Amino acid sequence: MAQYIPILDFHCGGIPLISTYHAASEGYFGINLEPLSKPTDISYTLLPDMAFYEFIPIKEKHTELGDQLHHSGDVYDQDCTETQNNKEETEPVELVDVKLGQCYEIVVTTSSGLYRYKIGDILMVTSFHNNAPHFRFVGRQGVLLSIASETTGEDGLLKAATQAKLFIEPLDFILTKYTSYADVSSTPGHYIIFWELKMKGSDHDISELNLKIIEECCYIVEESLDYVYRLQRNSNNIGPLETRVVKNGTFIALMDIFISKGSSISNYKTPSCIRSEEALKILDSRVVGRYFSQTAPSTSKLFEMEAK
User: How far apart are CA 145 and CA 290, in angstroms?
Assistant: First the structure.
């Protein structure tokens, strides 16, 4: 998944990152015909004998994905976030009927007994090999955070976290892991982002955090979320975003909790959103600092988009 690429690059020290196949708990579905391509450019060709595939188109209302096919991977993520947040399901299509630039939710029927099963992956058609479509993994289906009328998905969080990373990396900070939570215990509710930070070249906790830097990160995250969130935030229907910095090793403890509850250690991924009260207690018990956005995000991008 895209959020792990910077972490892998950091720890691998320039060693090529290779993804050979697209797999899920339900089976192996696709192979990468160009295994040495950049992680951000990877697409998979589905194996037609592994399952019977159907694809539910995800309708978009604000962007045309097909116009972005020559852009970078970040643009794919941004556009598909808008697609996912404004989706409406239509009749599924078969593998031979998918269209270039369209995002789909994949549905499989397998010989092991799954019938028209939604595995939760969102894929986008990026190109074709002969008549076989190539798919890029975009993210997981489902709304992660919602307080008012906004819906923030996995890709929206990834985009926001990426912008914050770009801000703190020149300051020698590394964002190693993050997750989120929609806190509605007060009015208005607000987003909470849990960050695990460390200094470059050190595995120890950061001794002191600059208040202004983390507050600016809060603002950058809010500014990177979609226009519905920003409108609701400016209308005070959503409170200021909060960042809680946690001790190093917190997300290892979080992983231990999920694995003890039955999650597969081989398939475990840090959840982008926390709903478990037990997991939330683990995170809160290791918080070393709490910071709030001091400025509401702008809504000008909405009007720029409508003008286009």
Answer: 20
